[in-house]
Specification:
This protein is α/β, with parallel strands linked by helices and 447 residues long. The chain folds into two domains: 315 residues, Aminopeptidase (3-Layer(aba) Sandwich), CATH 3.40.630; 104 residues, Alpha-Beta Plaits. The strands form four sheets. The chain has an eight-stranded mixed sheet with strand order 1-2-4-3-5-16-6-15, with helices on both faces. Strands 10-12-8-13 form a four-stranded antiparallel sheet, covered by helices on one side. Strands 7-14 form a two-stranded antiparallel sheet. Helix 3 packs antiparallel against helix 5. The longest helix is centred in the N-terminal third of the chain and has 28 residues. It starts with a helix and ends with a helix. The protein binds zinc ion (ZN) (2 copies). The site of one zinc ion has 4 residues, from loops. Pfam families: M20_dimer, Peptidase_M20. GO terms for molecular function: IAA-Ala conjugate hydrolase activity; metal ion binding.
Length: 447
């Protein structure tokens, strides 16, 4: 009884929040009515057909992290056509565009450009033309939607009260491109940043997100466990690294089940094991590797420390030596993705106004995946949300991110473009007086 009462109260509270949010945006949006029809603009064939064409071109030519040279060139060509100035190169292949007055406040919109090392299995006219590479995380759609937003915003440039910074970043998939963009100093003076990710199981025209932690922090590790190889029939003359690796793998599973607070979500997965090449030979060494995830820095650091201790300790139990590499140079740790509370309110206002209350899930369940958008959020208030691109006709295989069968519904593209545009334009409208003294001319100097 009491739990169902709580459930009703909770939902009543959410409805009240939504109604309040909708009222707020309706009153604030009267300041500038031309920002209200961004979705109509994005659905207009002039923008829609142009976006579809761009998305298919990028999909046909997927490029991996820090190799997005042709994708970057396509972006710059379109920005040139739109007369949008940009900086290039930033972080190897990155492009940073600017729309608006060139003065503060500055708000950023981010899209990632990289594809994955996998073979596309979808048979369609615009499938990947590069063997072993595929846009299976929808970053082709992300680039397209940001260009769509740029096209719409450029048409309203005179009404924009500040500067919108378009961030086309490389290498989200493990390469930490976001960190490189920040290290290049490309986002100084930016006071808010928005990013989105497509979700293939959320219907078109729907979005979801939440305030606070939404995606986990993630790290990777690889351990080499060394023993002494020999004849499999004479084990007493060898030191068996396979048994040591087995002990380590089992013990690593106890970190989450026995050491972590059950209410603090964490993951340790061994996803890789390599060792031995014959049925009758004990190998010299075994390599194991995997990933670990957590929502707080404390839990994350604790896991990192214990993974190293457990592998080295278990190797020692079996008379082996072990080294653990956290792969910092190749796969930087990604912090948890944590949404700013004020920007959450702004997002809900904009999304409810554009899509309707029933299309906005503002209390999304957090997810153990990770995103390098979190690097921006460590230094700039940031907000990340999920956008529906469900393909209703997709029956044969479940459409998932990182699946070779991923098919997205391109009808979702106008929604992403319009939300990007509206989030940025209305943010500037709201913060037009929050100028930072002395930095107003910086963007012109940088260009
Ligand atoms: Zn991905
Ligand atoms: Zn992705």
């Amino acid at each position: 009884m009491s739990s169902s009462f709580k459930f009703i109260c909770y939902h009543f509270f959410i409805i009240i929040l939504h109604v309040f949010a909708a009222t707020q945006i309706l009153s604030s949006s009267t300041h500038n009515s031309s920002f209200n029809n961004f979705l109509d603009s994005a659905k207009n064939p002039e923008v829609y057909d142009w976006m579809i064409n761009i998305r298919r071109k990028i999909h046909e030519n997927p490029e991996l992290g820090y190799e997005e040279f042709e994708t970057s060139e396509l972006i710059r060509t379109e920005l040139d056509k739109l007369s949008i100035p940009y900086k290039y190169p930033v972080a190897i292949t990155g492009v940073i565009g600017f729309i608006g007055t060139g003065l503060s406040p500055f708000v950023a919109l981010r899209a990632d450009m990289d594809a994955l090392s996998m073979q596309e299995m979808v048979e369609w006219e615009h499938r990947s033309k590069v063997p072993g590479k595929m846009h299976a995380c929808g970053h082709d759609a992300h680039v397209t939607m940001l260009l769509g937003a740029a096209k719409i915003l450029k048409q309203h440039e005179k009404e924009i009260q500040g500067t919108i910074v378009l961030v086309f970043q490389p290498a989200e998939e493990g390469g930490g491109g976001a960190k490189k963009i920040l290290d290049a100093g490309a986002l100084e003076n930016v006071t808010a940043i928005f990013g989105l990710h497509i979700v293939p199981d959320l219907p078109i025209g729907e979005v979801s997100s939440r305030s606070g932690p939404i995606l986990a922090g993630s790290g990777f590790f690889e351990a080499k466990i060394s023993g002494k190889g020999g004849h499999a029939a004479i084990p007493q003359q060898s030191i068996d690294p396979i048994l040591a690796a087995s002990g380590a793998i089992i013990s690593l599973q106890h970190l989450v089940s026995r050491e972590a607070d059950p209410l603090d979500s964490q993951v340790v997965t061994i996803a890789k094991i390599q060792g031995g090449s014959a049925f009758n030979v004990i190998p010299d060494h075994v390599t194991i590797g995997g990933t670990f995830r957590a929502f707080s820095k404390e839990s994350f650091n604790q896991l990192r420390q214990r993974i190293e201790e457990v592998i080295i300790g278990q190797a020692a139990v079996h008379r082996c030596n072990a080294t653990v590499d956290f792969l910092h140079g190749v796969k930087p740790f990604y912090p948890p993705t944590v949404n700013n509370a004020d920007l959450h309110e702004h997002f809900v206002n904009v999304a409810v106004n554009m899509l309707g209350i029933d299309k906005v899930d503002s209390v999304m369940t957090p997810y153990m995946g990770s995103e390098d958008f979190s690097f921006y959020q460590e230094v700039i208030p940031g907000y990340f949300f999920m956008l529906g691109v469900k393909n209703a006709s997709h029956k044969r295989f479940e459409s998932l991110l990182h699946s070779p069968y991923l098919e997205i519904n391109e009808d979702g593209l106008p929604y992403g473009a319009a939300l990007h545009a509206s989030l940025a334009a209305s943010y500037l409208l709201k913060h037009q007086r929050d100028t930072v003294p002395g930095v107003e001319r910086k963007y012109h100097d940088e260009l």
